[in-house]
């Protein structure tokens, strides 16, 4: 994997990286549940034509949430890699 991204050991290198990983996983799970609930609500709303516009908005917002998920994962991995670089530099000093 390029640059050491998506390696399990990056998550376990320090207490700081473990805490960061846990916080991002919590956010990731919240986004996942939010997107699923929005899609379910939007689907149910389509049974009534009067709720068509809110249903569409649920799908749009749910789609944005699904798009945020891979963005959050990439951010997490880049940040973990940067944390490893910081720790390596401080160990050399």
In short:
With 93 residues, the chain is an all-alpha fold. It has helices at residues 8-11, 15-45, 52-92.
What does this structure look like?
Helix 2 runs antiparallel to helix 3 (52-92). The longest helix has 41 residues, at 52-92. This protein is mostly helical. The protein has one domain. The protein has three helices and no strands. The chain is rod-shaped, with a radius of gyration of 19 Å. It has helices at 8-11, 15-45, 52-92. It comes from Palleronia aestuarii. The chain crosses the membrane at residues 20-48, 54-72. It holds the Pfam family YrhK.
How are the SSEs ordered, and which strands pair?
Layout: H1 8-11, H2 15-45, H3 52-92
Helix pairs in contact: 2-3
Protein name: YrhK-like protein
Domain YrhK: 23-77
Transmembrane segments: 20-48, 54-72
Overall domain count: 1
Q: Strand share of the residues?
A: under 5%
**Helicity, as a percent range:** over 70%
First-residue to last-residue Cα separation: 28 Å
Structural class: mainly alpha
Total helical segments: 3
Largest sheet report: none
Tell me the number of strands: 0
The unreliable regions are: none
Q: Roughly what is the average pLDDT, rounded to an integer?
A: 86
Q: Rg to the nearest angstrom?
A: 19 Å
Order of helices and strands: HHH
> Outline, from the CA principal axes?
rod-shaped
């Amino acid at each position: 994997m390029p640059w050491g991204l998506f390696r399990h050991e990056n998550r376990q290198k320090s207490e700081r990286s473990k805490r960061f990983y846990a916080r991002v996983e919590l956010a990731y799970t919240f986004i996942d549940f939010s997107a699923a609930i929005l899609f379910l609500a939007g689907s149910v709303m389509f049974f009534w034509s009067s709720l068509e516009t809110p249903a569409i908005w649920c799908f749009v917002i749910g789609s944005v949430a699904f798009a945020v998920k891979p963005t959050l994962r990439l951010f997490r991995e880049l940040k973990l890699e940067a944390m490893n670089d910081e720790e390596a530099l401080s160990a050399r000093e």
